[in-house]
């Protein structure tokens, strides 16, 4: 993130120097952040807000005097992944609240059945059903293409924990796809 001086005119024509912050995310980093958010289950309509949250956190970090992340792209992907987890938690809270309110109004209704879907929808559904900590490492490893060591460093957990979570997540997704007879 660079600070640069710009000359700005004021109402009466007076010119003064002002600090201008360059965008902390370049175009490629922004696309990566959007993709991590989307793969984390954040709806398309909420993606711009998620990208702005990542920018804001990077700017707040700089304003607080903290050193810039060593790898801004990896840092931004992890922040985006954490935002996606937060979004899911909030959505689950809303769903539980809605279920409780609905239960107060009417007797419990059971769903009629589950529809089948193509592979991409089955994988997306499988990702949605993974616990947050498993979904996070899958998205960071297989979409954001972060190495296991990088994920461990960014999340502050041992590499073995990342490997274990990846193994569990992949096994769970594979089982899910076989149960749904998608693969």
The computed structural class is mainly alpha
Overall helicity? 55-70%
Number of domains: 2
- What are the low-pLDDT stretches, counting only 5+ consecutive residues below 50? 1-10, 16-20, 107-117
Measured by DSSP, the beta-strand proportion falls in: 5-15%
Total helix count? Answer: 7
The CATH architecture classification of the largest domain is Orthogonal Bundle
Largest sheet: 2 strands, antiparallel
User: Oligomeric form of this entry?
Assistant: single chain
- At the fold tier of CATH, the topology name of the largest domain is Rna Polymerase Sigma Factor, Chain: A
N-to-C CA distance = 45 Å
The value of Rg in angstroms is 21 Å
Question: Secondary-structure element sequence?
Answer: EEHHHHHHH
CATH class of the largest domain: Mainly Alpha
Strand order of the largest sheet: 1-2
Give the mean pLDDT. 79
The beta-strand count equals 2
* Structural shape: globular
Explain what you see.
- The chain has 183 residues and is mainly α.
- The chain has 2 domains: 1-6 and 15-109, Rna Polymerase Sigma Factor, Chain: A; 117-183, Winged helix-like DNA-binding domain superfamily/Winged helix DNA-binding domain (Arc Repressor Mutant, subunit A), CATH 1.10.10.10.
- The chain has helices at residues 27-39, 47-63, 72-105, 119-129, 132-143, 148-155, 159-179, and strands spanning 3-9, 15-21.
- A two-stranded antiparallel ribbon has the order 1-2.
- A hairpin with a 5-residue loop joins strand 1 (3-9) and strand 2.
- Helix 4 (119-129) crosses helix 7 (159-179), helix 5 (132-143) packs across helix 7 and helix 6 (148-155) crosses helix 7 (159-179).
């Amino acid at each position: 993130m660079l600070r640069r001086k710009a000359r700005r005119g004021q109402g009466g024509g007076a010119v003064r120097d002002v600090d201008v912050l360059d965008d902390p995310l370049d175009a490629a980093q922004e696309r990566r952040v959007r993709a991590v958010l989307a793969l984390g289950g954040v709806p398309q309509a909420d993606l711009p807000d998620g990208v702005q949250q990542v920018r804001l956190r990077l700017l707040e970090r700089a304003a607080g005097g903290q050193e810039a992340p060593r790898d801004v792209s990896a840092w931004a992907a992890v922040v985006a992944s954490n935002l996606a987890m937060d979004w899911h938690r909030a959505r689950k809270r809303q769903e539980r609240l809605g279920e409780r309110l609905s239960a107060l109004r009417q007797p419990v209704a059971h769903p009629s059945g589950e529809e089948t879907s193509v592979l991409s929808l089955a994988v997306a559904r499988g990702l949605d059903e993974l616990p947050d900590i498993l979904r996070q490492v899958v998205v960071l490893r297989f979409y954001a293409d972060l190495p296991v060591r990088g994920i461990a460093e960014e999340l502050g957990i041992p590499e073995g924990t990342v490997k274990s979570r990846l193994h569990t997540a992949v096994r769970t997704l594979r089982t899910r796809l076989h149960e749904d007879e998608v693969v």
